[in-house]
Amino acid sequence: MVAGGAFFGNAATTVAGFWSGAAVGAASGFAGGFTGAALNTLANGGNIGDVLTAGFRAGVQGAFIGGAVGGIAGGIKASKNNADFWSGKKPTVQNIKAKAGALSPMETDLSAGGELVERVETVEKPAWPTKHRKVTSDYNPNRVHPVSGKPRPHTGTDFRSYKGDPNYSLYKGRVTKVYTGGSGSGGNYIKIEFNNGLEGSYFHTRPSLSVGDLVSRGQIVGVSDGSGIITAPHLHLSIKIDCNDYINPMDLFN
Length: 254
Ligand SMILES: [Zn+2]
Hints:
- Helix content is 38%, strand content 19%.
- With 254 residues, the protein is α+β, with helices and mostly antiparallel strands.
- The strands form two sheets. Strands 1, 2, 4, 5, 6, 8, 10 and 11 form an eight-stranded antiparallel sheet that branches. A three-stranded antiparallel sheet has the order 3-9-7, with no helix packed on it.
- The protein has three domains: 81 residues, no CATH class; 36 residues, no CATH class; 130 residues, Glucose Permease (Domain IIA) (Distorted Sandwich), CATH 2.70.70.
- It is built from five helices and eleven strands.
- The radius of gyration is 26 Å and the shape is elongated.
- The structure holds zinc ion.
- Zinc ion binds next to loops.
């Protein structure tokens, strides 16, 4: 559970960089090899068939070499760019939940083992996600439905956000998902992978951005649209750590 999205993203980015570098290198290797060999054969009095054959053979060789060189260079560059992007301090379950005194038994075991204790870091203070500074419903993993009596956890914090109000990115990040189908209890939503490895989901919000877009801290990510099952328009913001565990978003602001 200590592996963050940033690490998965890093490997994928390096591989993607390799192939895009390889494609560019192969193309320029082929062009260079073809032109060089064709001109050489032509200068030595070869007929057009010889010129093309020699050009093609050298072109393929050039493509292989150019592809490999370009691929490695592309992979290194993409990996470095990605590392620069993921420069935000990565919060841990330990330092966030310890504040709220809410470590789960498994996390307490991990802490006792020393794994998480070593990784305590300071979390950069996030931008406030809404225009109004009011929380209308708290995160509550133990909430029970008032009528059925069955567990119905509230896995995020509700912030006052009237229809048409902008909602803002907590940190620098990258858009990983947008949904505009309108159905479902959360309505429309946008997900941002922040550069500290946390993931934020903004529900009842019409996305203003597309998947892959980079966002800065405090940038508008969407507009409250009253979609989903709600009693009044608001922003439901949920935050996940290490790709799977919900945390109390308010712990980031305290
Ligand atoms: Zn909510």
